[in-house]
Each structure stands twice: as structure tokens, then as C-alpha cells.
Amino acid sequence: MTAYAQHTWTTAVTTADEWLDRAREVAVVLAADAVARDRVGATPYSEVGLLKDSGLVTLLGPVEHGGGGQDWTTAYRVVREVAVGDGSIGQLLGYHYLWFWTARLIATPEQVAAVEEQATCERWFFGGAANQRDNDLVVVDEGDELVFTGRKSFSTGSKVSDVTVLAGVLEGTDKHVFAIVASHQDAIVFNDDWDNLGQRLTESGSVEIRGVRAPWSDALGYVDKQFRPRVYNSLIVPLIQLVFTNLYLGIARGALTTAAAYTRDRTRPWPYAVDVKETAVQEFHVLDTYGDLQSKLWAAEALADRAAALIEAINTHPDTVTERQRGEAAVVIAAAKQRAIDTGLEIATRVFDVTGARATANTVGLDIYWRNIRTHSLHDPIAHKRAEVGRYALLDELPEPTWYT
Question: Where is the signal peptide (predicted)?
């Protein structure tokens, strides 16, 4: 395991472009041993340490508390850049940004200020246990405290997180409750059972919540035990869906970049062609394939950036966002996600056509890109995203807010 703590950062970053440069530096460090770390599958403590030391974990934090003060457009691009070097760590960072922002989405102004100050100053790394395909956590009201109990089959971040966002339903009601709690306590048991095809270093295994206690004052968005709803509350899903989109785009770019380097340096021209070339990069089918894949990737990235602009517009007036503004953003995000998945899987598959049989060697590691996109893109069925776009195009129908829309 590389000792990432030895990597030092000597320059301060303030602008969006500088943060993107920092993300690229992190990606280069991660890429150096990404394949080896994927094969071992060890808990990524050092990798999260790198994200902290580089400052990327505080990107969205308030400047007055030492954060980057950046917007979601920058955060999405940072996720994309980090995912070029390592898809697993890109996912961890993207989920961290979403859970860091949960207070902004749900909490009272006082809670937002308190959470963001402490999270930024102490460089919290966020995880979450809120998978809605499982039974909800049961939340019991015990006077001044809430007690969370239950099990979630996925908990991205788990042991490498400092805090975990819990979501459950208040017993005897239909009221959802979110709270941010310490990850390392006896009442939270991470089961270390994440053993999947790809995204192997995301610590996404199951978790058991055995009576986690939180004061009512930590119930996000509640005042005197009553929730204060806003349309903005429902942006949690579009935000994370666009994290997914940028994750896939970063992994796809990593595949294309790695394959291109291999083709330039190691792929041999086909000696039995009608028009034999001196190098592989002179072969027409190689140029045609890279041109096709690069064009598709640029198009998918442009659509993702368009979606981010819609989120940014909403973030300028979170308390007055309308259902239509929210719905139209969700539709464009759905379109961007499906293009990112289709393009990413195509790139991660077709790069083998232009690298050659020897590129399938385990030491090369080109398999990691397809495995990572294929694994995470099954998070929720892409067919439903296509149908959401279709209903909007045909019927001007906006998607109803759900835990997956």
C-alpha cells in the first residue's frame, strides 16, 4: 500500500480551476497503483487520507472555516477528475460531497451552520446508510433522544468515514428522520462483506444499526419535533444521480487515456493487412475507433455539464425552487446519466479492439474500467431513466420525486 501521507501539498488553492488541478494531481497519485490496490481490495484508509490532505474533502465547506467555498459544478468535475485515476475513490468522494450537503438540503439554518463549521474544521469524511431498497431504519422517540435501529445492505464509506448519515422512519408515523452520527461507535457494526465485481475499494458493504442514539436537536430539519419541508429537500436524489454520472464519465476517460497510452507505446500494427502500417497509431481502424469514442465522451460530458448548470441555478434560490424547476433538472440528469453509462460501457469494451490481445494481461488492468462502470451502473435500472426522459418528451410529464428520481 502506497504511503500517500508522504505526499505534500505546498500551494494553496482558491479558484475552481486550481481545485480541478489539485484533483488531477490526486488522480495521478491514485492511478500509479490503482490496479494493484484493486486486486488487493484493502480498506482505503490511506486513499481517504490523501483526499483529506489534498483539501478535496472540504471543497464545499465555508471559506471562513477553511473550506473551498466551491459550488456543485466544481464538485462534479472534481469527482470526474479523481475517478479518472481511481473509480472507487471517485465514488467515495462523490458520496462524501452529497452527504456533506445533506444539511443544506434538509436542515435548519442553525443546524447547517453548526454542521458545516465542524465538518470543515475537523475535515470529516462522510459515509451514509440510507439505501431505500431495504426496510427503513426504525427511529424511536425517547424524549430528548432518538434511537435508530435496523440494517442496511449498503453503506458506502463505512469504516473509512468519520460520520455516517442515518435515515429512518419515526415509529408509528410516516415521517423520515435524517441525522449525522459518529461512525465509530459500538452501536454501528460494519460487516466487511463488500465483495463485488467492481468498485472494490468503496467500503459499500452492509451495516447494522443497533440502537444508535442522537439528540432531537440533531434531527435535520426538525423544530420542536416537527419537520419543515421544502421542495429543495427532494434535490438529494438528483444531486447524487449526477454524482453517478460524473463518476462514470471519469472512469470512461480513465479507460480511454490508459488505452491510448498503451496503443501508442505497445500495440503492434497488424502485419497481414492490405495496407500494412509501420505503427498501430497509423492504422485507419485505430484512428477511427479513438475518434468515435472521444467524440461520444465529449458529448456525454457536455450533457453532464448542462445538467450541473441546472442544479447550480436551483442552488441560487433553494427556498423558492418550484416543482417544475426541480423536475426539469431531474430529466436532464436522467438523460446525462444514461448517456454516461452507455458511452462508458462502450469505451471500456471497445478499447480492447485497439490495444490488442496482450492488453488483456492482468498487469495492464484495462479490465478495471468496465468492471467499475458495470457494477455501479446497476445501482438503479437505467431503463427507468430513459422512460422518464420519454415521458417528458412525449407528454411534458415531470418525474415524481422518489428515492431514485
Answer: none
384-400 burial, b at 16+ Cβ within 10 Å, e below that, comes to ebeebbeebeeeeebbe
pLDDT tens for each residue of 129-163? 988 888 999 999 999 999 999 999 999 999 999 99
**Residue ranges covered by each domain of the chain:** 4-125, 127-227, 231-395
pTM: 0.97
59, 16 Cβ separation under 8 angstroms: no
Place domain 127-227 in its CATH homologous superfamily. Answer: Butyryl-CoA Dehydrogenase, subunit A, domain 2 (2.40.110.10)
- Give residue-wise pLDDT tens across range 101-112: 999 999 999 999
Give the CATH number of domain 4-125.
1.10.540.10
Q: What is the pLDDT of residues 361-395, one digit of tens each?
A: 999 999 999 999 999 999 999 999 999 999 999 99
Q: Which CATH superfamily is domain 231-395 in?
A: Butyryl-CoA Dehydrogenase, subunit A, domain 3 (1.20.140.10)
